[in-house]
Specification:
Blueprint lengths: L1 E5 L4 H12 L3 E6 L2 H10 L2 E4 L5 H9 L3 E4 L9 H22 L5 E7 L21 H11 L7 E7 L2 E3 L5 H13 L2 E3 L6 E6 H14 L4 E4 L3 E5 H12 L3 E3 L9 H4 L8 H7 L8 H4 L6
Parallel strand pairs: 1-2, 1-4, 2-3, 4-5, 5-6, 6-10, 7-9, 8-12
Antiparallel strand pairs: 9-11
Length: 293
């Protein structure tokens, strides 16, 4: 099938494009710059120029395709206002995609984060948080799943806190970035809180499986590591970068500080059993060994 993808040149998106092409699909990628256009075309995708805010372009991409995978999201986490703006932009784009696909029975695969539940691993049956810094994304993901009642084979792949490749990406990548800037490999809280993780190439396989096979209105967990202690993550980063490792205030991590400090392990048992998803790439702590000083 021809698949329209947003965010197709990012860490996750580039892996998804490669996975789709390898399995015989054609890809139409939304690109907003000359650099991303060249990268997508070099990977073998056709491109359509625009960003998430260009709703007419977003609709046109969906109209030309047999299915859609949405991955694009603003990367500015510097303030609550910046996060809210990114959520609003994503919501408008997904609403436009849903309107274009209504009544077609075509697949629309969106993305969210895994939920967290006090005292246990979260599962695919647990609801997403609807309040707080990422609550808007949860509400939008729920509205997309509700399109199942309007003739869209909608599904959601819930990504863990860290989607990584060669030691880069996700929350662990943010810890690395802050460590390089501050000279300290820091962690919030006592560091025993756990973050789930997955390699980007394994996550890409799940996006393809959801596109091809997921029933309408379903959510799936792209979780390989159920929960790595944040202190263990910071220790590998500190060793690889030659930096001291210590606890730092939550405020160091801006509007995501409270999320960084939360214990949020997650399971993908249902996803593995139902869709046949089997991660095969390095786990987070091993992949962080690829970090260069």
């Amino acid at each position: 099938m021809q698949v329209f993808i947003t965010g197709g040149t990012g860490l996750i998106g580039s892996a998804v494009v490669a996975e789709l092409l390898e399995h015989g699909h054609r890809v139409l990628a939304l690109t907003r710059s000359d650099t991303s256009t060249k990268a997508a075309e070099a990977a073998g995708a056709e491109t359509i120029r625009g960003g998430l805010a260009d709703l007419d372009v977003v609709r046109a991409g969906a109209a030309r395709s047999d299915g859609v995978i949405h991955l694009a999201f603003g990367n500015d986490f510097s303030s609550p206002e910046a996060v809210a703006a990114a959520v609003a932009e994503e919501t408008a784009a997904l609403t436009a995609l849903g309107e274009e696909l209504t009544g077609s029975d075509r697949p629309l695969v969106t993305v969210s984060g895994t939920p967290w539940v006090a005292g246990r691993l979260s599962t695919e049956d647990d609801p997403l948080p609807l309040e707080g810094p990422v609550g808007g994304r949860g509400r939008t993901a729920n509205s997309i799943l509700a399109l199942a009642a309007r003739g869209v084979r909608s599904s959601s792949v819930r990504l863990p806190r860290t989607v990584h490749n060669h030691g880069e990406g996700g929350f662990a990548g943010l810890l690395t970035q802050i460590a390089r800037q501050s000279g300290v490999s820091g962690y919030p809280g006592d560091g025993t809180q756990r973050w789930p993780a997955v390699h980007a190439v394994d996550a890409a396989v799940l996006f393809r499986l959801a596109l091809e096979n997921a029933p309408a209105g379903t959510a799936w967990h792209a979780v390989d590591d159920e929960g790595d202690a944040v202190r263990d993550i910071a220790e590998v980063i500190g060793r690889r970068l030659g930096l001291p490792v210590r606890q730092v205030p939550e405020e160091t991590f801006g509007p995501l500080g409270g999320i960084f400090a939360a214990d949020q392990p997650s399971s993908s048992a249902h996803t593995r059993a139902t869709l046949g998803w089997t991660p095969t790439h390095p786990k987070l702590l091993a992949d962080l060994e690829n970090l260069q000083p």
